[in-house]
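Subject: Sanity check before I submit

Could someone independently write out the structure tokens for this chain? I want to compare against mine line by line before I put it in a report. The sequence has 215 residues.
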Amino acid sequence: MLKRVAVFPHPPIVIPEVGKEEASKVMTTYKSMQKLAAEIKEINPEVIVAVTPHGPVFSDVLTITGLQTLQGDLASFGAPEVKIEFSPAEKAKQAILTGCRQHQLPCVAFAEQDYAKFKLSKKLDHGLVVPLSFLYRSGWQGKLLPINIAFLSYEKLYQFGKVLSVTLDNLNISWVLLASADLSHRLQQGAPAGYSPRGAVFDDLVRQCLREGDV
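---
Independent answer below. Compare away.
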């Protein structure tokens, strides 16, 4: 049964080993992430389904990480000591893949040979490592199911969500959906994605929807 839906941001600066003296600027976010991780730890789900925008992303297919060892760190952000490791939710993964085939939804397991083929790192990306490090440090020891987004139609993504929910509930397991997502990245001049006055409007709308549970 679905126990919680959580939206975590993933700025590496929020991790003290990365942010160092700059971490004080995001202390409110840090404390909120700690609090949310503690709440999930208290629920103690058997599986966390973690959706990331920074893994292998394709235009025509959703991918579920199919590795037998799920590891990641923040070495690329100067903090190799920040590491996480979880066991994969193999039964849940296979059930979801079966459900997607039955509903003709494009979803595959991204296996070891796929990482080699596309020359991609097998490590969990920072979109997962940043939020999951809070769960890891909290002592949660359940299984992880990492899912990478895809540039499919909203309708297909919605259908996938329905298959995901029904499939996991039918397995009679407790699970939490963790969505790793930042805001617009367009609030300041010189921002990597460029400045837009609509950035603040978008960010405020997202916050309002989350506060009101309109998701």
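---
OP: Matches mine. For the report I'm noting this point. The chain has a mean pLDDT of 95.
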